[in-house]
Amino acid sequence: MARINPLKRRLEADEAAAGVLITMPSVNLAQVLAGAGFDWLFIDMEHGAIDLASAHHLIAATAGTGCAPLVRVPRPDLALCKPVLDAGAMGVIFPMVCTPEQAEATVRCVKYPPEGDRGWGPFYAPARWGLKGPMEYFQAANREIANIVLIEHIDAVENIEAIMAVPGIDVATIAPMDLAVSMGHPGDRDHPEVVGAIERAERAILASPAALGGMALSSAEANAKIARGYRFLVMGYDVMLIEQIASQLLDGLRR
User: Fold this and answer.
1) 151-175 residue pLDDT tens
2) 191 given a catalytic annotation
3) Model pTM greater than 0.90?
4) CB of 76 within 8 A of CB of 54?
């Protein structure tokens, strides 16, 4: 059966996928970013001002594009994951996965039995996925939903081999800023100790069936990471994009 999830299609073909994090509950912004060519949107319910209704709207805003809607929830909790999946999210992003037990919990949250514990209720997801109804969605969901864990604490790096041994992780993304904070180097993702921890995590992820993900704030950085094996690239966030463009427009303005 052909892939429904465009992100998993790219990863299966060993192609890089670029996305952007959105913190604003703006359907208009989501439509623009999805239509601009990003492969996925990172809808942030952990740090963004996005509630469940807004997340549903943002997921729907990606329809008609090749952009996969992904949602970050605060933790691997069935009560948090079920409604965003039922709204049509094509993947869930889990922060601060530091142990294999937490990694196992993420799998149970995104998969229907017998592989997981997800409950039945896909009332809206089939429409976003372009499927005929709940049963067609059910047959595809466990295969198509992307399970993405964030490696963003030194404890996760210390447990990285055990985490990556857990079946059912599709992407493991290294978050350097939180990692740096956890190591006592806030704001310094280039500190030698942080770089060393990132390199250890990279090796373990590349040796696993999961795709390697990370942050890249320019096409040059993204290309360098692709050459090192990265396939899931976080290219910034909405506030940063708007601030950068605004600064460029105002730079040199004589007023």
Assistant:
1) 999 999 999 999 999 999 999 999 9
2) no
3) yes
4) no
